[in-house]
Design goal:
477 residues, three-stranded antiparallel beta sheet, 18 helices, 13 strands, 52% helix, binds protoporphyrin IX containing FE, signal, monooxygenase
């Protein structure tokens, strides 16, 4: 009797799994071509297989060849429409909250927290985003801010003096499957810490947060198992400790006031629309989003430039000309930044080839017809930003690092170039990043020659990793 009941239970479970997997296919005619892969896991494992960041990777490449730039699949546990099509990507990004909604997988939401800008939707998202826009407006291209970024870039590059080799992503060598570009993190971390909290990165609170951050990031990119001791569980704990440290810091600031003027924390604390949790989450987001992505961009610049001596020469000429009109130690100004035309093309090309954020996660809020396809309500929609960056019909020889392709073109906002996403969720940090990257290059090309210490490649997992840690041989000029 018991074996029979067990058999019936198993058969019911198996039928439920099969139906759950395939029913969405039967219910919805007019879907794009594609396949759902295996039961339970769908095609997620093949989709996540790492590949060089300046290629689309085998999975996307094969599907585009077989089905075209829009195809269906089963990813992250949900029926999915994958878009490598610039028009559909634009349509999805620009119809946020009307036809589509931001929808990151459960584990990412768990570790980022309920109040993270990437997780909240509707009115709450509008309020939190408004604070990010205010942060950007408070920096803008204001002389004092620009001078402080310049000083941070100068001091980080100067700290490498006397070293023959720098391994930019040191941690990648020690702990497999992490890519923390430590020597490069210092610079964006310094900028964001000073701007938001008015703290120097050497102060104990800032050091504590950075240490916890390493554990947190290992959690973000790990397999989402909440069992104690796993990197994911440790990451969640680290997030909680960062959040507690921030809270204590806020309380102290409320009591004692700030010793520095123009620190964004004071603007944040004065905001009556946001709850205490939202404010802590804002601080976390700005520190976390604000420096990991930027340090990856800097490492990608170092990598591609190491392979392109002619481009470095041209960059150097631009920066020598800017420096020739000012003193050796004088910080860069907004006017200097505006003269960095070629540098901006180099940065845009690194963003295109680096694909730091390969895709964004959305879901359809209602049935949608687009170019003859049906995207059913509730389905996941994945605009693959990187696939459009590498589409030869939009970018000639897309795998080549060639800044000249940007001459006379719009480098900020076109349908075929969206490294910072678009629409209501366009990255608020894009301008901050570009100034940091340009100033970093200024001090780098004027102070060093460099080459790769053996071959290494930026590999795209869900993030960019250099397998060997990007070791570089530096030669002071
Ligand atoms: C190279 C560096 C960076 C890249 C490639 C990048 C890319 C992106 C992308 C693609 C999105 C859109 C996500 C989506 O639509 O779901 C985004 C959102 C966001 N980014 Fe960045 N980002 C970078 C640097 C920064 C910096 C420096 C900050 C700090 C201020 C920042 C803060 C944010 C925030 C808060 C959001 C969420 C915005 C919202 O949902 O309204 N990012 N970023």
């Amino acid at each position: 009797m018991v074996p029979l009941l067990l058999l019936i239970a198993l058969a019911t479970l198996a039928t439920a799994v099969v139906l759950r997997h395939f029913l969405p296919l039967l219910r919805n005619p007019g879907l794009p071509k594609g396949s759902f892969g295996w039961l339970l896991i769908g095609e997620t494992i093949a989709f996540l297989r790492p590949h060089p960041s300046n290629t689309t990777g085998g999975f996307v490449h094969d599907r585009i060849a077989r089905y075209g730039t829009v195809f269906k699949s089963h990813l992250f546990g949900a029926p999915t429409v994958v878009s490598c099509d610039e028009e559909l990507n634009h349509f999805v990004l620009h119809n946020e909250e009307r036809l589509f909604q931001c929808s990151y997988p459960g584990p990412i939401r768990t570790i980022l927290g309920d109040s993270s800008a990437l997780v909240v939707t509707g009115e709450r998202h509008r309020q939190i985003r408004a604070m990010f826009l205010a942060l950007v407006a408070s920096t803008g291209l204001k002389p004092a801010y620009v001078a402080s970024v310049s000083e941070s870039a100068r001091s980080v590059v100067a700290s490498w003096r006397g070293r023959d080799t720098v391994t930019f992503c040191e941690e990648a060598r020690k702990v497999r499957s992490t890519s923390f570009c430590r020597p490069l993190q210092q610079f964006p971390y310094k900028v964001i810490m000073e701007q938001v909290l008015g703290l120097s990165p050497d102060e104990p609170v800032a050091r504590r947060i950075l240490e916890e951050y390493q554990t947190f990031m290992k959690g973000v990119i790990s397999f989402p198992l909440t069992i104690p001791g796993t990197p994911f569980a440790r990451g969640m704990k680290a997030r909680k400790r960062i959040s507690d440290t921030m809270e204590a810091f806020i309380e102290e600031r409320k009591k004692n006031g700030s010793s520095k003027q123009g620190v964004f924390l004071d603007v944040l604390l004065a905001n009556k629309d946001l709850s205490h949790d939202d404010k802590v989450a804002f601080l976390l987001d700005s520190l976390l989003a604000g420096h990991e992505t930027t340090s990856v961009l800097l490492s990608i610049l170092i990598y591609f430039l190491a392979k392109s001596p002619n481009i470095v020469e041209q960059l150097k000429r631009e920066h020598e000309s800017i420096r020739s009109s000012k003193g050796k130690e004088e910080p860069l100004t907004p006017e200097d930044y505006r003269k960095m035309d070629y540098t901006q093309r180099v940065v845009s090309e690194a963003l295109r080839c680096g694909n730091i954020v390969k895709l964004v996660h959305r879901k359809a809020l209602q049935d949608i017809s687009f170019k003859g396809y049906v995207i059913p309500a509730g389905w996941k929609v994945l605009p693959i930003l990187g696939a459009v960056h590498l589409d030869p019909s939009h970018h000639v020889d897309p795998e080549q690092f060639n800044p000249c392709r940007w001459e006379g073109l719009n480098q900020t906002n076109s349908k075929s170039f969206t490294p910072f996403g678009g629409g209501q969720r366009l990255c608020p940090g894009s301008e901050i990043v570009k100034v940091e990257a340009a100033f970093f290059l200024h001090y780098l090309v004027l102070n060093y020659r460099w080459k790769l210490d053996g071959e290494d490649v930026p590999m795209l997992h869900q993030y960019v990793e250099f397998k060997r840690g990007l070791p570089i041989q530096l030669e002071p000029l």
